[in-house]
Write a structure and sequence with these properties.
This protein has an 8-stranded mixed beta sheet with strand order 5-10-2-1-13-15-16-14, sandwiched between helices. About 40% of the residues lie in helices and about 20% in strands. The two termini are about 25 Å apart. The protein has about 325 residues and is α/β, with parallel strands linked by helices. Helix 3 (about 65-75) crosses helix 4. The radius of gyration is 19 Å and the shape is globular. The structure holds adenosine-5'-diphosphate and magnesium ion.
């Protein structure tokens, strides 16, 4: 079991009112990992929480990953996915698998679940309407070897006009992280990074990364070592200690990009935790990890409640 982050006992409406007032009309970018989509019940749980946010007047953009599904399809088609330094090599067959799974299976799975819940949603990717412009990543030196990651993109620019139009119509945009360059070459981008770029471009109030662990863990193999809140300097300290490994490395980088670009708050939350998203957003004690630019920017309510929670948990680093 990876996740035991089930600290909260529910969301009190009274406690939530100041947050409801604060969040009305704000934009939140919510990113879900591809693993969520393999769990129908959990997918619906997350979407029901997003539906609640939409009813509270929050402009939500949902971004999804799907790397694991792309690997499964690659294998089914007879080519073993290759990784160097933890990052996928996207050769031509791997790109075809990424297009089929991200823009196809993963995106459609979310849209179908939205249909079942009565959420008006439209699926698109960074390729649509110039939403995400990317540049092919040049070959890089990894462990003394030059590695060409292939059809992998780094985000250069975002034109969120299409998202604004969807949101104005009360629609939930469901965004796959594929992008393209100006020549129309499709590029595979990291979904955490795309979510961060959208958050910056849209002036979002929050970036929320929903993943399969309770949040940022001081010791990745110890679910009780959840960090309730941290700032950018704290993240850098954890990176220096080698704690931001595997899938957490692009998440930490995405959070840093978002906060540096003016997004006030980033959150890491488990999609396993019942109502974990709502608890993180609408209660003082939260459910996952809150990341702020500087700890000094925490509001008194955030500090008091977090301090109380922290005495029973791992110390803030
Ligand atoms: P997603 O599909 O949500 O992007 P990833 O697997 O890419 O999920 O990233 C989440 C994973 O990062 C966790 O399951 C965990 O194994 C790993 N991880 C590495 N270091 C940490 C850490 N310090 N805290 C939490 N998770 C970590
Ligand atoms: Mg990931």
């Amino acid at each position: 079991m990876k996740d035991i982050g089930q600290r909260h006992t529910g969301v009190s409406l009274r406690e939530a009112v100041p947050y409801v007032r604060l969040f009305k009309g704000k934009t939140f970018i919510v990113k879900v990992g591809g693993a969520l989509l393999t769990d129908d019940a959990a997918t619906r749980e997350v979407l029901a929480q997003i539906d609640a946010l939409m009813h509270l007047g929050i402009r939500v953009v949902l971004v999804h990953g799907g790397g694991a599904q792309a690997s499964t399809l690659s294998r089914a088609l007879g080519s073993e996915p290759r990784f160097v330094g933890g990052r996928r090599i996207t050769d031509a067959p791997a790109l075809a698998a990424a297009v089929a799974t991200l823009n196809g299976e993963a995106n459609t799975t979310l849209l179908a679940a939205c249909r079942a819940l009565g959420i008006a949603a439209v699926g698109l990717s960074g390729v649509d309407s110039a939403l995400v412009r990317a540049r092919r990543r040049p070959p890089v030196l990894v462990e003394g070897e030059t590695v060409d990651y292939g059809h992998v993109g780094d985000v250069v620019a975002v034109d969120p006009g299409v998202l604004d139009r969807l949101l104005a119509g009360g629609t939930l945009p469901v965004v796959s992280p594929l992008a393209a360059d100006d020549e129309g070459n499709v590029l595979n981008c990291n979904a955490d990074g795309v979510a961060a770029a959208l958050a910056v471009a849209m002036g979002a109030a929050k970036l929320v990364l929903l993943t399969d662990v309770a949040g940022l863990l001081e010791r990745p193999d110890d679910p009780r070592s959840l960090v309730s809140y941290i700032d950018v300097a704290g993240l850098a300290r954890l990176r220096g200690r080698g704690v931001l490994a595997g899938g957490m490395a692009p998440k930490a980088a995405a959070i840093e990009t978002a906060l540096a670009g003016g997004v006030a708050r980033a959150h890491l939350v488990s999609w396993h935790t019942p109502d974990g998203l709502l608890a993180e957003l609408f209660t003082n004690e939260g459910s996952g990890t809150l990341v702020v630019p500087e700890l000094g920017t925490l509001s008194p309510a955030e500090k008091t409640a977090e301090a109380a929670a922290q005495t029973a948990e791992a110390p803030v680093t």
